[in-house]
Each structure stands twice: as C-alpha cells, then as structure tokens.
Design a protein that fits this description.
By secondary structure, the protein is an alpha+beta fold. The protein is 18% helix and 41% strand.
Length: 71
C-alpha cells in the first residue's frame, strides 16, 4: 500500500491527521535538517498504522511531500 505524507517540520506539536485516500498530514517537533527527523517520522507512522517501522519504506521524497510504501 502506498501512502502520501505531507510533513510540517518544526511544529509546536507532534501529531498525525488522516485525510482519506491514504493521505496524511504529519506535524513534527524536529526540523528537516536534524539527523533523527526521518527516524521520528517513521516511528510516528509505524505507531499510527500499527505496523513495524521496518515495513515502512520511503519511495519518493519531494521536501515536505513524501510517498511511503507500507509492506
């Protein structure tokens, strides 16, 4: 399954909103240039989707817009 994720880095909160049709808006505390921001994003998606983080793969990265494949 492919999911579309729009990421808002440097937010004052950490949450995920679902907009239907496999589209998510993720608010993250960390900034895009921080080393662990990708790991934080995958961990949040893993918890929300109920799958192990190892089953979430990045397919396309266009800055704040990302496409992940959930295996």
């Amino acid at each position: 399954m492919l999911i579309n994720v729009k990421v808002k880095y440097g937010s004052s909160r950490q949450s995920i909103e679902y907009f239907g049709d496999q589209r998510y808006l993720v608010y993250m505390l960390s900034k895009a240039e921080e080393e662990d921001s990708y790991d934080e994003l995958v961990a949040m998606l893993s918890k929300r989707l109920g799958v192990p983080a190892a089953r979430i793969e990045l397919k396309k990265d266009s800055g704040g817009d990302k496409i992940f494949q959930v295996l």
